[in-house]
């Protein structure tokens, strides 16, 4: 079972891993149009180079 965070802890690596899993799960469900919009947004904010 995945670890569920109800508050921030001092274990930054575990929190980072959990956030990445959550984001990956959400992104997998997006349509192509939604992915393209997200990509454009990330590029325009210089998160993706």
How many strands in all? 0
- Largest sheet properties: none
Q: What ranges have pLDDT less than 50 throughout 5 or more consecutive residues?
A: none
Structural class category: mainly alpha
Distance between the termini: 35 Å
Helix coverage percent of residues? Answer: 55-70%
H/E order of the elements? HH
Number of helices: 2
Topology:
Layout: H1 12-28, H2 32-44
Structure characterization notes:
The protein contains two helices and no strands. With 49 residues, it is mostly helical. The model has no long low-confidence stretch (mean pLDDT 88). The protein is flat and about 35 Å long. 61% of the residues lie in helices and 0% in strands.
């Amino acid at each position: 079972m995945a670890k569920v965070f109800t508050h921030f802890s001092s274990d930054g690596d575990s929190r980072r891993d959990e956030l990445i899993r959550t984001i990956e799960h959400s992104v997998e469900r997006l349509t192509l149009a939604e992915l393209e919009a997200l990509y454009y947004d990330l590029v325009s904010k210089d998160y993706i180079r």
